[in-house]
Amino acid sequence: MKNTGLTPDHVTYKITISAYCREGELNTALKLSGEMKSAGLMPNLITFSTLLEALCEAKDLDLAMDL
Fold first, then answer.
1. What total of structural domains would you count in the chain?
2. CA 56/CA 53 separation, integer angstroms
3. Which one of 4, 49, 53, 63 counts the least CB within 10 Å of its CB?
């Protein structure tokens, strides 16, 4: 998306993060969350909940608590 000159927004990040979480790619989802913050977009409640739920399902409670 960035390669085409388009700037991702909250919705774009949320959908992409959700897809990575659903596929068990939590490191990639967390990386995107960091990119989102770097772009000046703070994750909203839905994005935060998506990451939290995925980390808990993966039994990564320490990382979930640090989120």
1. 1
2. 5
3. 4
